[in-house]
Specification:
- The chain is α+β, with helices and mostly antiparallel strands.
- It has helices at 10-22, 31-40, 50-57, and strands at residues 2-3, 6-7, 26-27, 47-48.
- The protein has one domain.
- The protein is built from 3 helices and 4 strands.
- A two-stranded antiparallel sheet has the order 1-2. A two-stranded parallel sheet has the order 3-4.
- A hairpin with a 2-residue loop joins strand 1 and strand 2.
- 7% of the residues are buried.
- The model has no long low-confidence stretch (mean pLDDT 87).
Length: 58
């Protein structure tokens, strides 16, 4: 996937697809990178930092 001269790797696409299909959020430090996948597709993915994910658990 390409947008505004940014390349999204195949690994990130697979991670996003697995999370979408499994209905689980993506937990990452790189929010902006995965947001570009959400912006380019129709899929609604929840993207969380590790801190936000921990807050949900606790």
């Amino acid at each position: 996937m390409h947008k505004k001269e940014k390349f999204i790797g195949l690994r990130e696409v697979f991670i996003a697809a697995i999370c979408y299909r499994s209905k689980v959020p993506i937990v990452t430090w790189n929010i902006a990178h995965f947001n570009s996948i959400v912006e380019e597709t129709e899929y609604k993915l929840e993207i969380l930092t590790p801190e936000k994910a921990l807050q949900r658990i606790l």
